[in-house]
């Protein structure tokens, strides 16, 4: 299953907002201008504007208007699962076109309507879907922020030694 640049860039946007919020008393952080995120992550601003609208609709980020406005996390990074982020950007996670996940969590296969026999591959796609969903739900934004900050510290220390 391939995720698009929507997921990649959107996750990078969220990590950058999370890094800037880290250690801030309310964990939402000061508002960050989208242009600053675009510059820091070397991403197209117009595309980030499209993505941040989806993240705002999903209640993952909030916007602040004004001269010192921008975007910040809607809640602490530790409370934001990457499953929420990816679904807000990509829509429902489906390993096959015929695969649908209902709100109740029941998996539907469009081939079930073909008669009495169920699609023989449904077990496989159900397991793939479950693995992806579990991995995304088990990873918080705080996990990614911590990883990014640890990596930045290592790079900084390596630069001092060289």
The shape is elongated
Low-confidence stretches: none
CATH homologous superfamily designation: Winged helix-like DNA-binding domain superfamily/Winged helix DNA-binding domain
Q: How many separate domains make up the residues?
A: 1
User: How is the biggest beta sheet arranged?
Assistant: 2 strands, antiparallel
Order of strands side by side in the largest beta sheet?
1-2
Structural class, from secondary structure content? mainly alpha
Number of E strands:
4
Give the H and E element order: HHHEEHEEHH
CATH C-level class:
Mainly Alpha
Lay out the secondary structure.
Layout: H1 5-21, H2 34-41, H3 45-57, E1 61-64, E2 70-73, H4 82-90, E3 99-101, E4 107-109, H5 122-137, H6 141-161
Question: Would you mind describing this structure in some detail?
Answer:
The protein is mainly alpha-helical and 162 residues long. A hairpin with a 5-residue loop joins strand 3 and strand 4. Helix 1 packs across helix 3. The termini are far apart. The relative contact order is 0.15.
Quick overview of this protein structure:
This protein is mainly alpha-helical and 162 residues long.
Tag the structure with descriptive keywords.
single chain, two-stranded antiparallel ribbon, 52% helix, 9% strand, 162 residues, Arc Repressor Mutant, subunit A, mainly alpha, 4 strands, 6 helices, two-stranded antiparallel sheet
